[in-house]
């Protein structure tokens, strides 16, 4: 082990020989099977178990389901023969080059997209293509499962070549689309001018596309253990053969020259790729796999032959070394692109506007390990059992992998047994050390600062036993971009919202006490672990030695949508639950832990599978046993709804006295009639609603008035201008309700809601309220918190009443402006809890038509209570105005993509219809019998959907669910049949279920609200106890 550590230490100094890569692909694309073959090349597992043991899937639910749920990684050592860089001739055998490959295996399911974002943020290259994550890393395309073309689809070599060519063309088309989107985003002014020269301008994008002759395409079968990429090993000029080995090039048997399609002249010649590669591959399968299905399983023989002929691990690692960049090369490209997406720095003497970088940023671009500017990025926090850390050095199958000759090949059972025995022995040694006060091995830690200057990460095996936590250790998954991280060093922890112009906000300091080389089932290299960050880093953050560094921001992912409420079985253990949830909140970037207004502790996850993984694996095992150390009760999954209004009036019978008021108008007075409010609720057009919903993050950034100071004024003005343009478009389209209400809308907006960032508007139509949102943003919130700046003298001063009493005295007459904060807060409360089922509202504009005060004769204490009364009156008025229109529920929706053969389409549609799904499109994939189906599915109907559709289709269809937003259910929850036609169709009993009412009552029942429901329905007989 000492020799391995020394070899690893030497490799860490050679940054040009390091490759940080991850595997990105969808579910069931063979990522973990591919990782097994790479692990077998380093002797971590047996070659016979590669593809079967799924070594990096260490969780019980991962093994049970057969899918990856958490990112895990390993450091691999790859040795290759050195070549002359000029002639590419192989040097003598003793001239070898060692490479350190840091590999991360990431999940493929969309519910775990945050894990994919974490892996791609830390890596410089990737294997495979994952369309759910658009990242700026250089990829190698791995076309896996080619064996299925031979054994299952029974394709000929020419059909297989056409199929793979089509796949390659589709992938390049997607890459080209992303490239064009980036060009348009980078140069929007040229697009606005629509310069023809710019549209037709040639861009050098050749390096973006996949082509086998470039070496960035690998053809593989991970389950059979073989792979190849176009690498010439013949006595032929490499450049000449590489040009014709892929594509429509054919070998003329007469002239022995390559000809194109025009040179065929009707002859049935095969392309080079088919004749020299696929024909040989198909011949091996045909000779080994017998056609008689009753024969002995030929797989072991096939895997042995193919692994010796075309070894998968050597091909993948060789392509990684040749195609993917080292950290030095990658950061020269990635870091400037990353910095351009961050908020700009204030101009200093070292920077010029639009060009140049600070010294700290230059150090990152150059990947300078000797720079005094230390900068690292923590992508996520995760918990590791202390005994796993303590036993990592003694684990026979763990640690940093050496070459095959340095390690004994172990079976999966032997490896796990040795790890178990090592963990038991380490626990006993630690207990003995604690009793005797001695020091023993308990982790993999960085040496002290005086010995840490040799390399960015230098490992040592000794630390004090009492420094190791008893159960869990929170470790930050980090990558160092410049400088050297040392034990004892003081670094600034910059939060995602940090900006150098406000160095005192979102910044803390931490002393690096522990550094870990994450090995075996995490990651290694210049990706390392930092202990002691709990309390400083929530989920992600930037570590820097200077405050003049821009924060890299958080890891982005889909917004969490599913939630469950937690409570302890023993109410006295609530404090332990809160502490455990704080740790849990740090363990997953896509999990949110919130305390709702009802007092419930809720965790929010990305999807049904994500939620199930946390409930069954984390909650019942980790959270129960280690994080909180208590027993926890979990509620049924909670799905959010939204409440909105349609353009039609309410169905309920209208009062004649109220018929003179326009629809949605309410006039209400506070207690004692001291204040009178008249408001009107009006639906917001769909186009404006979509604009507000898509810009919620932008609104949230502007809500933080301390973030960029005065720069918010320009941002607010720009946003109002864009919003006004959206209203003008809606006016032209004729979707506005009563166009005269929306005149000069930009200068009359008082607030957005709920939480000042939602898709609802408070608009002033009263001359007494003129404080617009764009002019004095945040003032209403401040006034509301102070219960409005009323001119009342404080108690204990000399400004008491004239009659000698202690009553506070008004210093001046109150006006409507003193209660703007109370009105705004009442609006926010109303938008947060709608009248249907206390869910947030969306698409509602509240016009404040008048606000009058009548405080003559009121004593000062009544006026002091008036702000709270105005809040309550405004809240209730908004809810009543909402009900004047026909209300609607908006459902959270999933976008569902799945592939299915034509013979099971009927079953797929039956499952979707049963769950109230809607088909968007269906297209047949060229050259295959599969249909690509896109549909929309309510989240509340999605529980068990994946299992149901797999059962109905015998596993031939597997859906991918991605949250796409909220969609209005066009059905009034209060609707009942009234007309003769409706009664004839549905009957007096309304036998057809009102789905909107069912959803509304389900939420009301969960929240403990009143439900108007009969105990006995449709009773026809009555039992009597009277005896004859």
TrEMBL record:
UniProt entry tagged with the keyword Cell cycle: no
Region (Disordered): 780-808
InterPro entries: EFG_II, EFG_III/V, EFG_V-like, EFL1, P-loop_NTPase, Ribosomal_Su5_D2-typ_SF, Ribsml_uS5_D2-typ_fold_subgr, T_Tr_GTP-bd_dom
Keyword Hydrolase: yes
One example GO MF annotation: GTP binding
Acidic residues composition-biased segments: 796-805
Keywords per UniProt: GTP-binding, Hydrolase, Nucleotide-binding, Ribosome biogenesis
GO cellular component: cytosol; ribonucleoprotein complex
One GO-annotated biological process of the protein: cytosolic ribosome assembly
Record PROSITE patterns: G_TR_2 (PS51722)
Gene3D superfamilies in the record: 3.30.230.10, 3.30.70.240, Elongation Factor G (Translational Gtpase), domain 3, P-loop containing nucleotide triphosphate hydrolases, Translation factors
All copies of domain Tr-type G, residue ranges: 16-254
Domain of life: Eukaryota
SUPFAM superfamilies named in the record: EF-G C-terminal domain-like, P-loop containing nucleoside triphosphate hydrolases, Ribosomal protein S5 domain 2-like, Translation proteins
Protein name: Elongation factor-like 1
Organism this protein belongs to: Rhizoclosmatium globosum
């Amino acid at each position: 082990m000492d020799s391995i550590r020394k070899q690893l230490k030497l490799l860490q100094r050679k940054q040009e020989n390091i490759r940080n890569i991850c595997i990105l692909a969808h579910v069931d694309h063979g990522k973990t099977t591919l990782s097994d073959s790479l692990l077998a090349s380093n002797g971590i597992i047996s070659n016979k178990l590669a593809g079967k043991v799924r070594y990096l899937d260490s969780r019980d639910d991962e093994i049970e389901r057969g899918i990856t749920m958490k990112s895990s990684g390993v450091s691999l050592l790859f040795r290759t023969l050195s070549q002359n860089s000029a002639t590419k001739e192989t040097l003598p055998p003793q001239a070898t080059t060692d490479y350190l490959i840091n590999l991360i295996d990431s999940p493929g399911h969309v519910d775990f997209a945050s894990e994919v974002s974490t892996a791609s943020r830390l890596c410089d290259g990737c294997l495979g293509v994952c369309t759910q994550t658009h990242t700026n890393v250089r990829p190698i395309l791995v076309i896996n499962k080619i064996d299925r073309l031979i054994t299952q689809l029974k394709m000929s070599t020419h059909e297989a070549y056409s199929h793979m060519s089509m796949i390659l063309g589709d992938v390049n088309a997607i890459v080209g689309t992303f490239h064009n989107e980036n060009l348009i985003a980078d140069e929007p002014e040229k697009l606005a001018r629509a310069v023809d020269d710019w549209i037709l301008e040639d861009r050098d994008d050749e390096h973006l596309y996949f082509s086998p002759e470039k070496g960035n395409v690998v053809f593989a079968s991970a389950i059979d253990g073989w792979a190849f990429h176009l690498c010439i090993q013949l006595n032929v000029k490499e450049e000449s053969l590489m040009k014709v080995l892929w594509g429509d090039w054919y070998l003329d048997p007469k002239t022995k020259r390559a000809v194109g399609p025009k040179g065929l002249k009707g002859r049935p010649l095969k392309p080079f790729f088919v004749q020299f590669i696929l024909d040989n591959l198909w011949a091996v399968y045909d000779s080994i796999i017998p056609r008689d299905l009753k024969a002995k399983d030929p797989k072991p023989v096939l895997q042995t032959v193919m692994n010796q002929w075309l070894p998968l691990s050597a091909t993948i690692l060789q392509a990684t070394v040749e195609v993917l960049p080292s950290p030095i090369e990658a950061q020269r490209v990635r870091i400037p692109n990353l910095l351009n997406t961050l908020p700009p720095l204030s101009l200093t003497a070292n920077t010029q506007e639009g060009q140049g970088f600070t010294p700290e940023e230059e150090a990152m671009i150059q990947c300078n390990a000797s720079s005094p500017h230390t900068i690292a990025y923590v992508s996520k926090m995760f918990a590791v059992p202390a005994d796993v850390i303590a036993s990592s050095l003694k684990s026979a199958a763990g640690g940093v992998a050496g070459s095959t000759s340095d390690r004994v090949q172990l079976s999966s059972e032997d490896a796990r047994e040795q790890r178990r025995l090592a963990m038991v022995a380490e626990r006993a040694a630690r207990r003995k050390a604690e009793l005797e006060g001695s020091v023993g091995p308990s982790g993999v830690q960085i040496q002290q600062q005086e010995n840490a200057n040799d390399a960015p990460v230098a490992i040592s095996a000794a630390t004090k036993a009492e420094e190791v936590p008893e159960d869990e250790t929170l470790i930050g998954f980090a990558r160092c971009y410049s400088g050297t991280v040392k034990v004892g060093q003081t670094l600034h922890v910059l939060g995602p919202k940090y900006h150098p112009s406000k160095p005192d906000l979102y910044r803390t300091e931490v002393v690096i006490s522990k550094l870990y080389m994450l090995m075996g089932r995490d990651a290694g290299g210049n990706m390392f672990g930092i202990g002691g960050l709990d309390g400083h880093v929530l989920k992600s953050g930037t570590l820097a030695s200077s405050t003049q560094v821009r924060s890299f921001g958080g890891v982005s992912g889909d917004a969490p949508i599913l939630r469950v409420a937690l409570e302890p079985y023993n109410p006295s253990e609530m404090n332990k639950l809160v502490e455990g949830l704080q740790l849990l909140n740090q363990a997953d970037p896509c999990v949110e832990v919130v305390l709702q207004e009802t007092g419930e502790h809720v965790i929010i996850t990305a999807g049904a599978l994500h939620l199930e993984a946390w409930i069954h694996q984390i909650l019942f095992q980790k959270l129960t046993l280690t994080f909180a150390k208590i027993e926890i009760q979990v509620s049924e999954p909670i799905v959010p709804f939204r409440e909105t209004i349609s353009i039609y009036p309410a169905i309920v019978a209208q009062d004649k006295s109220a018929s003179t008021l326009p629809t949605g108008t309410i006039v209400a007075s506070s207690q004692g009639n001291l204040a009178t409010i008249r408001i009107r609720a009006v639906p917001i057009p769909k186009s404006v609603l979509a604009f507000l919903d898509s810009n919620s993050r932008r609104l949230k950034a502007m809500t933080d008035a301390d973030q960029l100071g005065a720069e918010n004024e320009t941002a607010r003005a720009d946003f109002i201008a864009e919003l006004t343009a959206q209203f003008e478009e809606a006016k032209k389209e004729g979707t506005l309700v009563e166009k005269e209400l929306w005149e000069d809308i930009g200068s009359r907006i008082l607030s957005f809601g709920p939480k000042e960032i939602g898709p609802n508007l408070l608009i002033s139509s009263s001359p007494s309220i003129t404080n617009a949102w764009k002019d004095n943003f945040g003032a209403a919130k401040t006034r509301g918190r102070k219960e409005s700046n009323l001119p009342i003298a404080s108690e204990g001063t000399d400004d008491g009443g004239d009659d000698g009493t202690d009553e506070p005295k008004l210093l001046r007459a109150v006006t409507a402006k003193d209660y703007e904060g109370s009105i705004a807060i009442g609006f926010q409360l109303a938008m947060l809890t709608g009248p249907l089922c206390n869910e947030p509202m969306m698409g509602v504009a509240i016009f404040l038509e008048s606000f009058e005060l009548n405080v003559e004769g009121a004593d000062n204490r009544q006026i002091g209570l008036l702000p709270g009364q105005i809040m309550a009156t405004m809240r209730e008025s908004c809810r009543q105005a909402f009900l004047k229109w026909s209300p609607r529920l908006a459902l959270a929706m999933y976008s569902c993509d799945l592939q299915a053969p034509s013979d099971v389409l009927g079953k797929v549609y039956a499952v979707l219809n049963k769950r109230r799904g809607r088909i968007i499109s269906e297209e047949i994939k060229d050259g295959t019998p599969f249909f690509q189906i896109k549909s929309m599915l309510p989240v509340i109907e999605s529980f068990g959907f994946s299992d149901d559709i797999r059962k109905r289709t015998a596993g031939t269809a597997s859906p991918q669910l991605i949250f796409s937003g909220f969609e209005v259910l066009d059905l009034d929850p209060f609707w009942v049949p009234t007309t003769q036609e409706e009664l004839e169709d549905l009957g007096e009993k309304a036998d057809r279920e009102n789905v909107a009412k069912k959803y509304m009552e389900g939420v009301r029942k969960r929240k403990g609200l009143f439900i108007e429901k009969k105990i006995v329905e449709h009773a026809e007989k009555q039992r009597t106890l009277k005896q004859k």
